[in-house]
Every structure is written in C-alpha cells, then in structure tokens.
Design a protein that fits this description.
By secondary structure, the protein is α/β, with parallel strands linked by helices. The chain has helices at residues 2-18, 30-61, 63-70, 73-79, 86-100, 114-118, 155-168, 179-182, 208-220, 233-238, 269-279, and strands at 105-106, 126-130, 186-190, 195-196, 227-231, 248-252. The strands form two sheets. The chain has a four-stranded parallel sheet.
Length: 290
C-alpha cells in the first residue's frame, strides 16, 4: 500500500505542474473549460496506466512472498528457504512471462500447492508421485491423478480404480476427485506443478522439479514411516534416494493404458500400503472414493 500511495503522490504532484492549464476555467471561456476537462481525462488515463504498471512490478517482486503465504504452515516452515533460491526466482520469471504472453496456465495459481495444503508433513502416510498436471480445461486442481468431480475420469485413473477393485474389492468411483485421499494423509504430488493449456510437459525443466525434490527429501526425513508408491520410471528415478530401510517403497509400471498391463494391474499396492501402515501403528487409508 505504501508503494501505491507514493506512486499516486508522484503522479499527482506532476499533474499540478504539467497538466493544469493556466486560466483554463476563466468565466466565459467554454473552449478553455473543455480543454481543461480533456486534460484532466488524459491525466486520469496516464495515472491509471502508471498505477497498473507499478502494481504489476510490485506483484512480480512479491510473488515469492505470496506463494509462501499460501503454503500450509508446517510446509511453510520446512520449505521457506526454497523460495529464496535462484531456481525459484527463475521459475517465477518464467511463469510471469508465460502469463504476460497470454498463455493459460493450469492449475489456478491458488492451487499450485494444493497437495501440500491438504496433506501437512506430519499427516503424510502415503506418497503417490505424478509427473505434471493434466493440461485439459478444468482438469488440474493441484493433486496428481485427480480431476474435479464434473470432469471425465482420465484413462490412468480408470486403471487405478480397476486395481483398487481387484486388490480391495472397492467398486470404481463415478468421479475422479481424490481430495478424500489427500485429507487422510495421501500426498498426491506432481513433480512439476504447472502446465500450459494443451501442452503436456511444457513446464518441465524450469525449476519445479527442484522444489518437489525438496518436498520428497522432507518426507524422507520424517520420523514416522511412510509408504511411497512409485508408478513408472520417472517417479522411481525421482525418489531413488528414499530410505527403504525405514519407509516402504512400492514400484510398478505407470497406470497409463500404454503400460498398466505390464505390471501395474495386479500390483496390490493398496493392500500392501495398508498392511505396512497397520503394522507400524499408523492406521489404514480408506481408499474408497465417496
């Protein structure tokens, strides 16, 4: 707010010197009065343009602060240092440039960290790693493999439901909204947290991978044992450093229709996860989607 007041003050001061015509409002001079009104209108346009520009600059300068304020408190404490690192500043500049170029980015900025907001670190019992968000309209909302309840269920999630039914006898849900898992302690984390509309993997290699590596490192360091479900080579490589002496690391092919038949279907990861959690006193996950 101080920035805005200062900017307004500078514009107002300049307006008194540059935009106030002398004798513009003398009696009997309709032409001069009209010119004065036009001048004021021009000044208003200049003032609005200037304020808009300055607000954009301020928004860019404070994006790190805004992002960290959106984080759940426990994650904020553990990850605050990441927002000061050079890769994060470069990522912010990339996202800002993409937005200014008129590109649509999924999910909404308020949902970049939705997975972390719904699953604080001390609540994490299971980690499921994805790659990057869905790039279709209305699909991505910050959780890997999940879509909003009014969106058609994607093929990979259909195969996840098939495995759930085969493993635990849970009938396939009528929608793909997985927040019920997240609130129970299933961290549904994508490696890359944003994507350009209609352009799969378009935001890979711009810094998100380093941030989500830091998230996995924090989970790996938690005192309580966690189940890691690593589906596909990408997820398995990303979490290769996880300590499998303390945590349960489950690996299988990706549930995509291209690879699910190679070992994802029949992997029984959900029952294995619950058995491990039960054995370590952490309670089972209710995998049924309501």
């Amino acid at each position: 707010m101080l920035h805005i007041i200062t900017i307004f003050g500078l514009f107002y001061k300049n307006s008194q010197q540059l935009y106030q015509p002398k004798n513009a409002l003398k009696k009997g001079s309709r032409v001069k009065t009209l010119r004065a009104r036009c001048t004021r209108l021009s000044f208003s346009k200049v003032l609005i343009f200037g304020l808009t520009t300055q607000l954009k600059i301020i928004r860019l300068m404070t994006m790190s602060t805004q992002n960290i304020l959106h984080l759940e408190n426990e994650w904020k404490e553990k990850l605050s240092g990441e927002f000061d690192r050079p890769y994060m500043h470069a990522l912010e500049q990339f996202l800002q440039a993409e937005t200014q170029a008129g590109k649509t980015i999924f999910p909404d900025q308020s949902e970049y960290f939705r997975a972390l907001d719904l699953t604080p670190p001390n609540n994490v019992r299971v980690v499921i790693l994805g790659q990057d968000p869905y790039h279709g309209d209305g699909q991505a909302h910050g959780l890997c493999f999940s879509v909003r309840s009014d969106i058609r269920i994607p093929p990979s999630l259909k195969n996840i439901y098939k495995e759930l039914q085969s493993d635990l006898g849970i009938p396939p849900a009528s929608h793909g909204f997985l927040e019920g898992w997240a609130t129970q302690g299933v961290l549904l984390l994508n490696s890359v947290l944003t994507v350009e509309r209609g352009m799969a993997a378009s935001h890979q290699g711009h810094g998100w991978e380093m941030f989500t590596d830091a998230v996995i490192e924090q989970v790996n360091a938690l005192p309580n044992p966690v189940v890691f479900m690593l589906w596909g080579g990408y997820a398995q490589k990303k979490a290769a450093f996880v300590d499998d002496n303390r945590h349960l690391v489950l690996q299988a092919p990706h549930p995509s229709p291209l690879s699910a038949h190679r070992g994802f279907l029949g992997c029984k990861h959900f029952s294995k996860a619950n058995a491990f959690l039960r054995e370590h006193g952490r309670g089972e996950i209710d995998w049924a989607i309501q």
